[in-house]
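Annotated sample (chain length 162).
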Amino acid sequence: MNVYQVVIHVVADGLMVPVVLIGLYELIFKVPKGQARYDAYTRILMAGLTAYLVASLASVYSPEEARPFVEQGAAAGALYLNNPGFPSDHILFATAITAAVWFETRQKWATWLLVALTVAIGVGRVLALVHTVTDVVFGVIFALVGALWYINAPRRKTQRIE
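Output written by the structure step:
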């Protein structure tokens, strides 16, 4: 495995670790306690389940093309499940975490960091030949459909870090 392949593998799979850790930190320590926390966690759960349900239903109608590494006769450059790959579960999950952090904490720095990491993961998944651009784009779209649960969330002012 050469350096390029290692970098692609780390970007495509390894960046999920900081996305999850940053998301957990923000959602545990920055969401207000009490009823507001319960309400926020309920919205997060419903948004995630809705995104997963929409993605699962859409996967039935997925494009009838094989994963890019199969079509090109190459080795996969990242981890993948033995399914058509539509939509990208990595991107669905990373986008759902990013949306939860934004809507429930309004932490700009964390949200922008998560957006950058999510974009990097998407690029890495395409370069690793385990997803097409369509798989990645629809992973984002389906996660944002789940994020509709945040529409009626109470609006809090952005907290400034000093």
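Annotation: Residues 3-150 form one domain.
Annotation: The mean pLDDT is 90.
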